[in-house]
Amino acid sequence: MSNINILIVEDEAAIRGMLTIVLEQAGFSPIAAAEVDSAQKILADTFPDLILLDWMLPGISGVEWARRLKKDPSYRELPIILLTARGEEEDKVRGLEIGADDYLTKPFSPKELVARIRAVLRRSGKLQGGTQIVLGNLILDTEQHRLTIGEKQLDVSPTEFRLMQFFMTHPDKVFSRTQLLDQVWGRSVYIEERTVDVHIRRLRKILGDYGKEELVQTVRGFGYRFSLID
Amino acid sequence: MSNINILIVEDEAAIRGMLTIVLEQAGFSPIAAAEVDSAQKILADTFPDLILLDWMLPGISGVEWARRLKKDPSYRELPIILLTARGEEEDKVRGLEIGADDYLTKPFSPKELVARIRAVLRRSGKLQGGTQIVLGNLILDTEQHRLTIGEKQLDVSPTEFRLMQFFMTHPDKVFSRTQLLDQVWGRSVYIEERTVDVHIRRLRKILGDYGKEELVQTVRGFGYRFSLID
DNA sequence: TTTGAGTGTGACGAATTTATTACAGACTAA
DNA sequence: TTAGTCTGTAATAAATTCGTCACACTCAAA
């Protein structure tokens, strides 16, 4: 269960399905959209680490959308890989001009796709050899599956670990219970929203043992936030 | 100038040549044969450390030869990596049945080839620079096949030894049961995941006799970790 | 102060995951 | 061959985790 989310935007259902399967098998968490409109919605409440974008799309074209995203400060850092039709050299050039991070010419092999994705992620620092997330004196090491606070090791359950991992990679941001369920539990399970509260409680209890209870903050009416600042 | 001899058996001259070059560059000493007959001769008077064997061969097929070798006591230990054509899943299954140590699906990258070869050689103990791995007061000597803790020598079975070897070369890192099976048992065998648990248990028991039971740690939901730290 | 929605908390049973044991077949050395 | 070891698997036990619920508490608007 990687938490590398990849947003696929592709109108052809067959290719979309193929991409989804390939990415899943490669250990990513893909989300697919058929056109820009729904992609935009997904973008709003999920937090993809990379977008795989078809060049030709009905309605707003992929290029056009990419151009917009690259102009938007809050999405500028989000890597985009364009999928172009065979041999349209010109497109490639234009694609890179608008700031796409890579392009891939159809047809491509699954292997190549995954390799390119990894390369881009690595370049943007999201896929690192260094597997540590450091926040203050909190260290979460995904490779060792360890959560330490100062010198002390915290004993957390798998779900708590994933929750912490998500929080620590998105500090200072408020997330609704639904968003947390989507991100930490996965989009495909249905679970009561209140369950999040319980897990938050458990996390706070553990953190509280080390005087760090206030790291997880309640934002009444919205959800929770993880932050070093009060 | 390695003394690792690798016997290549491949009928297509182009691929044979490519393999030879790749292996040479990787520091191995390749010897190539176009079919089983000449391979058999080479086998008789040179002593390869590993065979890279094409699945499809004129005359006796690669599989058939592999099967024979694996039955012959004097060659049983000789690792074999099968080269299979793309997507022939069935072949893989048969490949592992006859006891191949790994398989590689064409086309493959030189990098992957070399990595797999190294892995297999390491697993069979033939690739070791310094033969000792030292961790705390634990010493694992791959050449003498010995595991000592302080002054005491531990009596471990072959599988336990390989498991320890893998753990000691990758300390502090969590591995899933699948990863352990791939790395310690080999990619081409199908074994129940639970079997790992049993071997872990056996290892712990042995280590426990010397007060080192806690070296192998359970990471619930993920797998196991070998670490000197709690 | 009242009221109701939003949140915190402890408990519980079910589900999941891991540990342990026993056993049969394969293999090895004598 | 034979006794003994090694290994994978299945069965069972033990431990942990997880989602829900019921009820207590908070907060803010009226």
From TrEMBL, chains A, B:
Residue ranges of every copy of the Response regulatory domain listed in the record: 5-121
Claim: Transcription regulation is one of the keywords in the record: yes
Domain OmpR/PhoB-type: 130-228
Portion annotated as DNA-binding: 130-228
Localization annotation: Cytoplasm
InterPro entries: CheY-like_superfamily, OmpR/PhoB-type_DNA-bd, Sig_transdc_resp-reg_PhoB, Sig_transdc_resp-reg_receiver, WalR-like, WH-like_DNA-bd_sf
Residue positions, PTM 4-aspartylphosphate: D54
GO term, biological process aspect, one: phosphate ion transport
Record PROSITE patterns: OMPR_PHOB, RESPONSE_REGULATORY
Stored SUPFAM superfamilies: CheY-like (SSF52172)
GO cellular component, as recorded: cytosol; protein-DNA complex
One GO molecular-function entry: phosphorelay response regulator activity
UniProt keyword terms in alphabetical order: Activator, Cytoplasm, DNA-binding, Phosphate transport, Phosphoprotein, Transcription, Transcription regulation, Transport, Two-component regulatory system
PANTHER family: PHOSPHATE REGULON TRANSCRIPTIONAL REGULATORY PROTEIN PHOB, REGULATOR OF RPOS
Main function: This protein is a positive regulator for the phosphate regulon. Transcription of this operon is positively regulated by PhoB and PhoR when phosphate is limited.
Name of the protein in its database record: Phosphate regulon transcriptional regulatory protein PhoB
Native source species: Methyloglobulus morosus KoM1
Organism ancestry: Bacteria, Pseudomonadati, Pseudomonadota, Gammaproteobacteria, Methylococcales
